[in-house]
Design a protein that fits this description.
iron (chains A, B), Intradiol_dOase_core (chains A, B), metal-binding (chains A, B), catechol 1,2-dioxygenase activity (chains A, B), five-stranded mixed beta sheet, 289 residues, homodimer, Intradiol_RC_Dioxygenase (chains A, B), 24% helix, Protocatechuate 3,4-Dioxygenase, subunit A
Amino acid sequence: MSDVNQFNITEAVKDSFKTEPGSRFEQLLHGLIEHLHDYTREMNITHDEWMKVLTFLYDCGKISTPERQEFILLSDVLGFSALVDMLNTRGGATEGSNLGPFYLDDAENMPLGCDIAGDRSGAIVLVHGKVTDILHHPLSGAVIDTWQADASGTYPIQEQEHGQDKYDLRAKLKTDSEGRYYYTTVLPKPYTVPYDGPVGELLRAGNRHAWRAAHLHYIIRHPGMHTVTTEVFFENTEYLGNDAVFGVRKSLIGKVVPASKVDLSSFDLARKPDAVIEYDFVMAPDNNA
Amino acid sequence: MSDVNQFNITEAVKDSFKTEPGSRFEQLLHGLIEHLHDYTREMNITHDEWMKVLTFLYDCGKISTPERQEFILLSDVLGFSALVDMLNTRGGATEGSNLGPFYLDDAENMPLGCDIAGDRSGAIVLVHGKVTDILHHPLSGAVIDTWQADASGTYPIQEQEHGQDKYDLRAKLKTDSEGRYYYTTVLPKPYTVPYDGPVGELLRAGNRHAWRAAHLHYIIRHPGMHTVTTEVFFENTEYLGNDAVFGVRKSLIGKVVPASKVDLSSFDLARKPDAVIEYDFVMAPDNNA
């Protein structure tokens, strides 16, 4: 046998996996082993620290449920989720941002101009814009799938035990022949990610808050185009510079304008808005289509 | 606000933690963030791959119990545990190796020459040697805490529902005035780490077996000396070159000699052995003592 030591163990562990040479699985595994070992050597990790890391992961597992994914939260606060969003944004297209835990894939199809605020209190805002390809050609029939928190920072899906309908504040809309979309809703407020578990302890230990900047969630789909999963934020609101999950990008911030300053004659609206946000989405071709 | 992109996000996440500058916590956190982000960028992780990683961790959490620590197992098969053992071995001292999941800190104190095999079948072996400091001075009164599997590869603690006593095949012995220790036991057999969970799936996906080379576990303690946690393996046995958790080091392999070839007159033994293993432990001063 060859003797394993702190320098050759990395090759030994990589060699122990008899994966298909050059496969993606091998690449991911070898990279993981190299970084894990380099980190351990660079930091000179002690047994106590090693046990703390493993206990932390164990505690994350303990608190996790299908509804409460502590590992996704961990990924979020370490910027891993945001980085994956960034790396997978297609050139020229709208930047990607967090999907978050509250998406439902079967929101109701609603007509352009609809109101999804219902009886919720808060500022009523007209959200509108165009969906185009990267050459700015309008995309007709693109599906805008949106969901959001209300003006107290809560998603109706979180309040089902208080009688709220989890499909509230959600809609699927189709762009018209000019690629336009528009609807009214209530302006959402910031909220905190869950911080009653091990990730919350990590945030506290690192003197970090758990607040997310207020946002609207979107998934934009169009045949032949790469789906865009993103969030739209609002100018001059809290936590834009220190969103707890690094979801904010400059290009994703929409300007909120008083409705009185906007010509609303081109919109067929079910409800009169207090304010207006214009935001255009750009889609890139789907390489795999 | 500054715009976050795939290149400056690493600094942004590091800055988000307001830890004590220069503290160990900051060092560990910053290094983790850097390696996690570098890995993500180098691999160009997709959303599918990201979700697979998080689901894997979630599944590890699901199967974990206080008795079944899947994250420790994951650390073991990735060589993380072994590397921490290596980094924390004191210069000149016996190399460290896996603690494993079956240690109990209250094994019975037994006299030198005792037999801990009880009624278990298999080859009876005399294990003996000296405990010294790194200058080879014998250490008198060093406590040898040992535990092991039986000749079918099972720890009694795993067989409690079949009436086995979890304290079987365990003992604490004290070295004599010459630093000597000796006792008889049954020669253990190889066994597999648990592979019915997500880590087992990883091993199968990577065409790896789950077998550990047969070994005896030891914790050696002496006042003023750095505690040695290690394992002793046996020459010419299976899995020395491919132990599933990378616990084997050349320096930890003992030679098994037929008892007929050894002069046993200097040992006061409760039981006649079939074979003899000689292994000396070396302890380094405890820096923190």
